[in-house]
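Dear support,

I submitted the protein below through the web form. The confirmation email said the job was done, but the results page showed an empty box. After a refresh the structure appeared. I'm attaching both so you can tell me whether what I see now is the final result or a partial one.
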Amino acid sequence: MPSVPKKTIGIPSIGSVKSKIATQEEEKKKEVIQTDIKETKVNSYTEQELATAWESFTELRRNLGNDQEVAFLKHTYVKAGDIIKIQIHNSILEVTFDKLKVELQAHLRGELQNDAIKIELEKLENASKKMLYTNKEKFNHLADKYPAIKLLQEKLSLDPDY
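What the results page shows now:
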């Protein structure tokens, strides 16, 4: 049997492997940079233009029959640069905001030709009024308001619990 010469496989050197990897990584970076460079629109807009775009989104939601979302969109909002803050008093409305945020932001960005617009919630603190339930609580409240009542109670030896 004749002997068949064996083929040898060349093993690349570490330097050539590193250079191939480096060129591949550079090509990937160039592709990523090219895809990231998009035309970002940053046009200025007025309060009136914002109100018009806001109302058009509200009308879209009204046509879809989403009354809860329409009610949420009627809350006041404040424009601070490119950040629009919706003012709410109730933390339950955060759920509605989470459902609407992406679509509302996309709508406003498209209508106003400004990709820098962001929408945030601003929780307003309620001055919650403490409810007075017992006679003692009611008496103490009145005594704080009118100190003469406390004096009257002491002179007449009255017990506010009865």
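Response: this is the final, complete result; the empty box was a page-load delay. Residues 68 and 96 are 8 Å apart (CA to CA).
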